[in-house]
Amino acid sequence: MKVVIVGGVAGGASVVARIRRLDEHAQIVMIERSGYISYANCGLPYYVGGVIKEQEELTLQTPESFWDRFRIDVRVRQEVTAINPAEKTVTVHALDSGKVYTETYDKLLLAPGAKPTVPALSGVSSERVFTLRTVEDTLRIRHFVEEKKPKTAVLAGGGFIGLEMAENLVEMGVSVTIVQRPKQLLAPLDADMASFVHAEMRRHGVALRLGETVTGFRQDGDSVLTLLEESEPLHSDMVLLAIGVTPDTHLAKEAGLTLGIRGSIAVNERMETSVPDIYAVGDAVEVTHFVTGQKVLISLAGPANKQGRIAADNICGGSSRYHGSQGSSVLKLFGLTVASTGINEKTARAAGIAYDKVVLFPASHAAYYPGAQSMAMKVLYEKESLRLLGAQIVGGDGVDKRIDVLATAIRAKMTALELTELDLSYAPPYSSAKDPVNMAGFMIEDLESGKVRQFHWNDVEDLPCDGSATLLDVRTAWEYQRGHLDGFRNIPLDDLREHLDELDRGKPVYVNCQTGLRSYLACRLLTQYGFTCSHLSGGYSFYQVVTQERQTARSAYPCGMEKLTH
Fold first, then answer.
1. Is residue 120 part of a domain?
2. What are the tens digits of pLDDT across the range 346-394?
3. Structural domain harbouring 460
4. Tens digits of residue pLDDT in 266-280
5. What is the phi/psi pair of residue 221, to 5°?
6. Residue 218 clears pLDDT 90, i.e. is over it
7. Phi/psi of residue 529, nearest 5 degrees
8. How far is CA 497 from the centre of its chain?
9. Which residue is catalytic, options 42, 465, 533, 559?
10. Based on the domain organization, do 491 and 435 belong to the same domain?
11. What is the pLDDT of residue 66?
């Protein structure tokens, strides 16, 4: 059996190694357009920033190492220019020599990946306008940074690569401005959770020009102008286009393969295309979203590697299936860790899913053990079935652990209530006896059993301020004086029982505290004394972040009161 693989990064490299493990006698040819294979896409911004010191550390394998270990014929700097399914051949152009030749195959796998989206704007070909997708792109940017020593940069786009580049450039002393049409960074997050990211970026001096449209670029001596639709141009020493990626599927289209959304390659669960003996994996293919069942594009290394393994199994006569992706991701951003899995509110609404959510601010580990850090956690679930839909977490230590637990729970099709039963490890330096994931389950259990009601940050402005309802802030007097919601009366939780006679049982009560714990306790107390009560999900802290992009405290007491550092 002769297998030809087009593309040698995550998916392609995974395929060839797996095929060799399954079939020692297969003839395997891997053709890669760039000069590098099996390189760490996700590490490219950190090489530009000097965090990764050596270029060699970016490449997990080389053509030589693939041959030595796997006897795989790796051909870099060669580009497949056409596929002839009827004859089972590909046309290859050797970029260095100019030679054009034909290669036969029994099985063909396409792993072309995705290419940076480069809009058809004036000046986009300027030598000071960059994209970041390949090792060659990275070397070009690093050479420019080392030689020209830019002081200012404009980043068009606020996705993973854009934000990682922003962090690395800032750490190098470059003043960074991010411009993009959407009004929030990081599309996998809901707008309220993205507010934490906005606050962190601004805290480190990054200027955010959200909701603005780039119309072109113009060279201006040793700088470049970023032209905006409704604002004055931005001057900078360099521009990075990071507005997203587009599936690189022209070969598949020209060969007559069925295409999916946004021009991606349509595949089945076996990673087979519409043409026999042709498979496809990675950023170029559409997949089924594990939560919604809808076709999506998810450009992440984890799914690409898993798809490669499955395709290899089936090429070698197996029967493996890819059951979809839920888009689990994590991002380091200065002092924050930002993570998500499953779907957000926008996606749930678009899919017509009736959902609810909880917001909480647990500590990364036992609050009494030194170094505990607060995290903001949002968990979505379907109202009728109580199945978990998605989660978003922003914080410091412990974010990656919790998002992976929740991702696993979603994959296992657990209900939100089953989070309460998870037997998770505990020691004070690592967690709490009630882990944050358990806490999310407890909160959902209380909501669904009717023990508590909640309202959300976007409901605050519609609360009745005409005296027909009681608006109650149960934080300490000191917290209240530092800032509070208009119209809310302050009665600290510990004093509430002594003031019950001052409250009208005929009026609904809306309760607020710092993060939601004390307001929950107040609601449980008031409900048992005959009051109808709701509490603010995420509390005053969450409200401030969303409405003012105020930086939250990095640590807090178990009740949610901020620990002030001097």
1. no
2. 999 999 999 999 999 999 999 889 999 999 999 999 999 999 999 999 9
3. 454-548
4. 999 999 999 999 999
5. 65, -120
6. yes
7. -105, 15
8. 44
9. 42
10. no
11. 85
The whole-number average pLDDT for the span 438-460 is 96
DSSP state of 549: -
- Contact assessment for residue 238 and residue 150, using Cβ atoms and an 8 Å cutoff: yes
- Quick check: is 316 catalytic? no
Give pLDDT tens digits for 195-209.
999 999 999 999 999
> Which uninterrupted H or E stretch holds 408?
helix 399-411
The phi, psi pair for 489, rounded to 5°, reads -85, 140
Cβ atoms of 117 and 244 closer than 8 Å: yes
Global pTM value: 0.93
Residue 338: C-alpha distances to residues 161, 171, 379, 400, 407 (Å): 13, 19, 14, 8, 14
Contact by Cβ (8 Å): 185, 200: no
Q: Is residue 327 part of a domain?
A: no
207, containing H or E segment: strand 207-210
Buried b (16+ CB within 10 A) or exposed e, 351-387: eebebbbbbbbbbbbbbeeeebbbbbbbbbbbeeebb
Q: Which pairing describes strands 152-156 and 175-180: parallel, antiparallel, or unpaired?
A: parallel
Rounded Cα–Cα distance for residues 498 and 480 (Å): 19
CATH code for position 424? 3.30.390.30
Residues 49 and 55 sit within 8 Å (Cβ to Cβ) = no
Among 552, 52, 189, 188, smallest CA distance to 335 is for 552
Both 107 and 255 in one domain: the answer is: yes
- For the cut 80, the answer to whether the pLDDT of residue 552 exceeds it is no
Q: Which residues contact 265 (CB under 8 A, 6 or more apart)?
A: 110, 247, 249, 252, 257, 258, 259, 273, 280, 284, 285, 286
SS3 27: strand
In-domain check, residue 474: yes
Q: Which domain CATH number covers 135? A: 3.50.50.60
**Cβ neighbours around 484 below 10 Å, total:** 16
pLDDT (tens digit per residue) in 402-424: 999 999 999 999 999 999 999 99
CA–CA distance, 475 with 481 (Å, rounded to integer): 10
